[in-house]
Automatic annotation (TrEMBL):
Pfam families: Methyltransf_25 (PF13649). It comes from the Bacteria. Residues 47-140 form the Methyltransferase domain. It comes from Nocardiopsis tropica. PANTHER family: METHYLTRANSFERASE, UBIQUINONE BIOSYNTHESIS O-METHYLTRANSFERASE, MITOCHONDRIAL. This is Class I SAM-dependent methyltransferase.
Length: 205
């Protein structure tokens, strides 16, 4: 979906009658893959979350004492994420940004978190995105990426199922050393067990 598509989608569903299944990725909490990395000590501040959506992953990190900037292309999503952060009593700097053209003024980060964003990009967007990450990172910056695996059933239009080879090749070509890649799940309200996913930890060279 385009920026406008995402914003129209969120605006059509974020109302008093909305149910969790109305937004297929709204689990009203952090993804368990991110929770695992945080518990293992794999997150360092400051943190940038790309494609933060409704903010629950950023809020989880803020609750654990991290300084977090979180960006999304949808102004409506950012507004809702800011509301959720206030209700949770934590501080997150939410901003409207296109991840393929992210403004370097957002900062320089020790950790970049990408939860279910990479698999939404086509080839040209992916190249622009990985190039843009260099403007907000430095050698040694960590990248935590959770994306839909090619072991998952055929996904909805716009979501790419990612192979291990594809991820390693894309990240390596963009200057990221893949430290670890493990099988994980992408939680969804409509799927109690979650969809198969890859959980990647990489480091910028």
């Amino acid at each position: 979906m385009t920026q406008n598509d995402f914003d129209v989608f969120y605006r059509s569903r974020l109302n008093d009658s909305a149910r969790p299944q109305d937004i297929p990725w709204d689990i009203a909490g952090p993804q368990r893959g991110l929770v695992a990395i945080q518990d293992e000590g794999g997150i360092r501040s400051p943190v940038l979350e790309i494609g933060c959506g409704l903010g629950d992953n950023a809020i989880h990190l803020a609750r654990h004492g991290h300084r977090v900037v979180a960006v999304d292309v949808s102004p409506t999503a950012v507004e809702e994420a800011s509301l959720r952060a206030r209700e949770a009593g934590v501080s997150v700097d939410f901003r409207v940004e296109d991840a393929t053209r992210i403004d370097v003024s957002v900062g320089d980060f020790a950790t970049v978190v990408d939860i279910a964003h990479f698999h939404c990009l086509d080839d040209s967007e992916r190249s622009l995105y990985l190039e843009a990450l260099h403007g907000v990172s430095h050698p040694g910056t960590r990248l935590v990426l959770l994306g839909l695996s090619d072991r998952a059933p055929e996904s909805a239009p716009g979501l790419r199922r990612l192979s291990e080879h594809e991820l390693r090749t894309s990240l390596s070509a963009a200057g990221w050393w893949v430290r670890s890649m493990r099988t994980s799940v992408l939680d969804a309200p409509s799927s109690a067990g979650g969809d198969p996913a890859w959980l990647v930890e990489a480091e910028r060279l």
